[in-house]
């Protein structure tokens, strides 16, 4: 909302104000980078140049993404769609940065597509598809823009009716772009469908959709969402409840906790369900480790790996992992209380009942109100020894 407001103000400023240009571009760029994840390398530096060569470019040996003021002029002419157009171009170049991580150095050029450029048609199409999808995950709608954006850029760069070495004709570039947008729209539709399937409890179908998306965009959030489906499916595998505590990831813990509780946990499952649960939790662990490989800065990926380790009874590993995490991860405001919560569960499952109860008591005392009821229930469950419905005597609604 704030960014849109700033952009409207920006559009009212004439002539072009280079400082404002830079501020808006940096904000959009930072949003896109946040979606892509921290990774192990430094993000390319964004630079605005007055040249008129390439619209935008990723230069590997300088680790820079360039966007030209001429291109920003074109982008501004899109009015309410300006941020979307800007996001599409920056995101396209960021995908070239990602490609470099696996394919080696090639300087990209936004206009040079298939004809004589250093990058292949496949790499350019991938940049259009992934770029558009990354922009969508960052809150920008871009798939409707490509035809008119290319038309205006070609006109601004005086390329509309020319055939120059290294540049496809406008029609060729538009055709490739439209094809890429069809694929991007399919990914966006699937991602929305996967989110809906997950909310409605269809975890294996949701997982299939996320797995398909990963073939085109192996981003940390997609791996994370995939891992969550595996956890949820593992939690709901049996007609009985075999997991004593409420976990931070659960959308509907009440339904599970109302099932008859089997105190001997996984041992109560038949052999096929035991194997299926082990596979699901291994897949979940792989998914969160993949998310962490791409972005180790987000507390929620670490938290979900800890949940998976608890559910698969790797308690020693969970405890070591929890204590190895720096304060900067454990204290992130989005997940600070969830880390205390999972610590309580690790301690309870490891037999450290006093420490577990203490963790849940800290949540009840200090955390915001929405955590209180769940912490109360989890504290109540620390000493539970008998089998039966966990919530039978516990009328407090979740
Ligand atoms: Zn490109």
Brief characterization of the structure:
The chain is mostly helical and 398 residues long.
Characterization of the model:
The protein has 398 residues and is mainly alpha-helical. 61% of the residues lie in helices and 5% in strands. The protein folds into two domains: 2-185, no CATH class; 219-225 and 235-389, Serine Threonine Protein Phosphatase 5, Tetratricopeptide repeat (Alpha Horseshoe). It has helices at 2-12, 18-36, 69-76, 82-103, 121-137, 146-156, 170-199, 203-216, 220-235, 253-258, 271-294, 299-311, 315-324, 327-330, 336-349, 353-366, 372-381, and strands at 45-49, 56-59, 64-68, 260-261, 388-389. The strands form two sheets. The chain has a three-stranded mixed beta sheet. Strands 4-5 form a two-stranded antiparallel sheet. β2 (56-59) and β3 (64-68) form a beta hairpin. The chain is elongated, with a radius of gyration of 25 Å. It binds zinc ion. Zinc ion binds next to α4 and α5.
What's the layout of helices and strands?
Layout: H1 2-12, H2 18-36, E1 45-49, E2 56-59, E3 64-68, H3 69-76, H4 82-103, H5 121-137, H6 146-156, H7 170-199, H8 203-216, H9 220-235, H10 253-258, E4 260-261, H11 271-294, H12 299-311, H13 315-324, H14 327-330, H15 336-349, H16 353-366, H17 372-381, E5 388-389
Parallel strand pairs: 1-3
Antiparallel strand pairs: 2-3, 4-5
Defining traits:
single chain, 398 residues, three-stranded mixed beta sheet, two-stranded antiparallel sheet, 5% strand, disordered N terminus, binds zinc ion
């Amino acid at each position: 909302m704030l960014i849109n407001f700033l952009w409207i103000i920006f559009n009212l400023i004439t002539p072009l104000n280079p400082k404002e240009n830079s501020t808006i571009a940096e904000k959009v760029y930072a949003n896109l980078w946040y979606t892509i994840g921290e990774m192990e390398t430094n993000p390319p530096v964004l630079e605005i140049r007055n040249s008129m060569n390439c619209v935008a470019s990723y230069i590997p040996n300088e680790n820079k993404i360039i966007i030209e003021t001429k291109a920003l002029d074109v982008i501004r002419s899109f009015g309410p769609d300006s941020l979307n157009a800007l996001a599409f171009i920056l995101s396209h170049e960021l995908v070239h940065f990602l490609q470099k991580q696996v394919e080696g150095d090639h300087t990209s050029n936004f206009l040079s597509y298939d004809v004589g450029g250093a990058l292949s048609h496949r790499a350019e199409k991938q940049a259009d598809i992934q770029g558009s999808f990354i922009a969508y995950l960052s809150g920008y709608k871009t798939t409707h823009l490509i035809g008119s954006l290319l038309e205006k850029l070609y006109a601004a760069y005086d390329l509309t009716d020319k055939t120059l070495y290294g540049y496809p004709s406008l029609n060729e570039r538009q055709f490739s772009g439209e094809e890429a947008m069809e694929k991007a729209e399919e990914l966006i539709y699937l991602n929305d469908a996967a989110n809906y399937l997950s909310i409605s409890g269809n975890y294996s179908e949701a997982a299939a959709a996320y797995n398909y998306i990963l073939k085109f965009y192996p981003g940390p959030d997609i791996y994370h969402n995939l891992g969550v489906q595996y956890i949820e499916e593992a939690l709901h595998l049996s007609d009985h409840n075999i997991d004593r505590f409420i976990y931070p990831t659960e959308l509907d813990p009440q339904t599970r906790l109302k099932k008859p509780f089997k105190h001997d946990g996984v041992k109560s499952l038949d052999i096929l369900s035991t194997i299926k649960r082990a596979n699901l939790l291994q897949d979940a662990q792989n998914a969160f480790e993949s998310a962490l490989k791409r972005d180790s800065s987000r507390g929620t990926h670490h938290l979900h790996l800890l949940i998976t380790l608890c559910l698969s009874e790797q308690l020693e590993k969970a405890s070591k992992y929890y204590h190895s995490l720096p304060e900067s991860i454990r204290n992130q405001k989005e997940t600070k209380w969830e880390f205390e919560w999972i610590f309580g569960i690790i301690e309870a499952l490891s037999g450290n009942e006093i420490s577990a109860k203490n963790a849940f008591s800290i949540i009840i005392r200090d955390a915001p109100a929405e955590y209180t009821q769940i912490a109360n229930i989890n504290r109540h469950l620390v000493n539970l020894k008998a089998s039966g419905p966990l919530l039978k005597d516990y009328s407090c609604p979740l």
